[in-house]
Design a protein that fits this description.
There is one protein chain. This protein is an alpha/beta fold and about 475 residues long. About 45% of the residues lie in helices and about 15% in strands. The protein is built from 17 helices and 16 strands. It has helices at about 25-35, 75-90, 105-120, 140-145, 165, 175-180, 190-205, 235-240, 245-255, 275-285, 310-330, 345-355, 370-380, 410-420, 425-440, 445-455, 465-475, and strands at about 5-10, 40-50, 55-60, 65-70, 130-135, 155, 185-190, 210, 215, 220-225, 260-265, 295-300, 335-340, 360, 385-390, 405. The strands form 2 sheets. It has a 10-stranded mixed beta sheet with strand order 3-4-2-1-5-6-7-10-9-8, with helices on both faces. The protein has a 6-stranded parallel beta sheet with strand order 13-12-11-14-15-16, sandwiched between helices. Strand 3 and strand 4 (about 65-70) form a beta hairpin.
Length: about 475
């Protein structure tokens, strides 16, 4: 078996299940994958150094080897806070109004990708497979090729891929995309993002897209497919059954005093639609005044990217909306919105999910959204909560038995909350059973195996994307 070299912007040192705070989907998924597939996880440590040396900090924790480098303050400002989070992130989430184009950002992005290439190159052995993750490192494969690396290399994008008409607003977009074509496999979360990518390479680069969605480029065949990511269902289910989860469940249930509970768990990010979610909940309280003292929204939103001005504005906006809604609908012993700016261990989150009657997952645009799948996995099958899910989340293409909503429409979301609260037990059980089957059968192990199989050059499952298989299985379950 070939060794696997995983490369991502940040490296999360593995911890015991439930011991970490609110880890992102990438960290949870890759820790799980690397425990079963020998190799190395390489990336930035998250630490600063006054002068970049390329020094590797090698550690082994919980059967996963990590190798990290420190970056200079200028690198972090231009590459991470700049090009990654003020240029690519908003553009890839269709927020061209927030996208900043700055030449220094672009130069910093290329510089740091070269530093990654220089540092990881000595770790790569001839038979290794290289798996690069996300928008931070799109050109890394081409830089490794320039160093003579001819290993099988794949790229997986965890974000959406924007339509061609938006992507062409990015200076040097052709250079960025052609650098991606140095990978052997390019993976996307959904067929929608895959189709957007293929449309770009046909229209802007004039390349041939074959019937199997591979791209012919400089005499090579680049495989492009959808590989929708899942959660580690077995690990999360174990965490949800823990004493810590039960204590969290009981504490939250006790605190709401018999009221119906809605829960949202999101990073503090404009793509998550938190402002629109609060407005929708406020509209629900206005439309159904008899419910004003009978429902509570718990929104957990750990802060992120605090150095970026737009994220500071989000926090201020949510605090203002929380105050306005609570001021209008609260009583002396009750507030309808509990807004919490901190993360929680996964076991506690599982308990919170299980205590909730409704999971509100309403991003304006999302590559996948694993919170939706965690909410489903945490529910009591005998008395499950209802998932309200944005139609613009990648997960909506798999979790078709959720209540799918347009998060831009406060009326639509308000009506979905009313419908969820009124939903009969039999319907809740039926919907949950089908949602759980998709979450269980198309978990992170399935995702990992599908991508690694493609990276190894093995069959393409009869030409069907993993997303198409998941959707087909969901339909059959119905």
């Amino acid at each position: 078996m070939s060794r696997l070299i995983v490369i991502s912007n940040r490296v999360s040192v593995p911890k015991a299940a439930g011991a970490a705070g609110a880890q992102g989907g990438l960290a949870v998924a890759l820790n799980s994958a690397l425990r079963e597939h020998r190799g190395i996880w390489f990336g930035w440590s998250g630490q600063e150094t006054q002068e970049f040396t390329g020094h590797l900090d090698m550690q082994r924790n919980d059967d996963v080897t990590t190798a990290t480098i420190d970056l200079e303050p200028q690198d972090i400002d231009e590459y991470y806070n700049g090009y990654a989070n003020r240029t690519l992130w908003p553009l890839f989430h269709f927020r061209i109004d927030l996208t900043e184009y700055n030449r220094d950002f672009g130069e910093g992005y290329e510089r740091v990708n070269r530093r990654f290439a220089d540092s990881v190159h000595p770790l790569i052995e001839p038979d290794d497979m290289v798996w690069v993750h996300d928008y931070h490192l799109l050109p890394l494969g081409s830089m490794l090729r320039a160093k003579g690396v001819d290993n099988r290399m794949g790229l997986f994008l965890h974000t959406p891929w924007p339509p061609t008409r938006l992507l062409v607003s990015l200076p040097f977009h052709e250079k960025l995309v052609t650098s991606m074509l140095e990978y052997d496999v390019i993976g996307f979360q959904t067929t929608e993002w895959l189709e957007s990518f293929l449309h770009y390479v046909q229209k802007e680069l004039g390349l041939k897209v074959n019937l199997d969605n591979s791209v012919s480029y400089q005499g090579r065949r680049v495989v492009a497919r959808a590989f929708p990511i899942g959660i580690d269902h077995a690990e999360f289910t174990e965490a949800a059954a823990s004493e810590e989860a039960q204590e969290a469940h009981d504490r939250l249930k006790s605190s709401v005093r018999g009221r119906k509970l809605l829960i949202g768990v999101d990073r503090l990010d404009y793509s998550k639609g938190l402002g629109e979610r609060f407005q929708s909940f406020g509209r629900f309280l206005t439309d159904y005044p008899g419910e004003a003292g009978a429902v509570v929204l718990l929104q957990i939103a750990p802060p992120s990217r605090g150095d970026v001005a737009s994220y500071q504005q989000i926090r201020e906006d949510l605090e203002r909306k929380t105050g306005n809604i609570n001021g209008a609908h609260a009583d002396v012993g009750f507030v309808p919105i509990r807004y919490v700016n901190r993360g929680y261990p996964r076991a506690q989150l599982a308990g919170f999910y299980r205590a909730a009657n409704i999971g509100l997952v309403t991003p304006l645009r999302d590559g996948m959204n694993l919170v939706a799948k965690e909410f489903v996995a945490a529910q009591d099958p005998e008395d499950p909560g209802v998932l309200i899910l944005s139609q613009f989340a990648g997960a909506a293409l798999q979790l078709t038995d959720a209540l799918l909503v347009n998060p831009h429409s406060v009326e639509h979301v308000s009506e979905a909350i009313r419908r969820a609260l009124d939903m009969p037990l039999a319907e809740r059980q039926r919907r949950h059973a089908k949602l759980l089957a998709s979450v269980r059968d198309f978990d992170v192990i399935h995702w990992r195996n599908a991508f690694v199989s493609a990276l190894e050059g093995k069959g393409n499952n009869g030409g069907r994307n993993a997303e198409e298989q998941a959707t087909s299985a969901s339909i059959k379950a119905a």
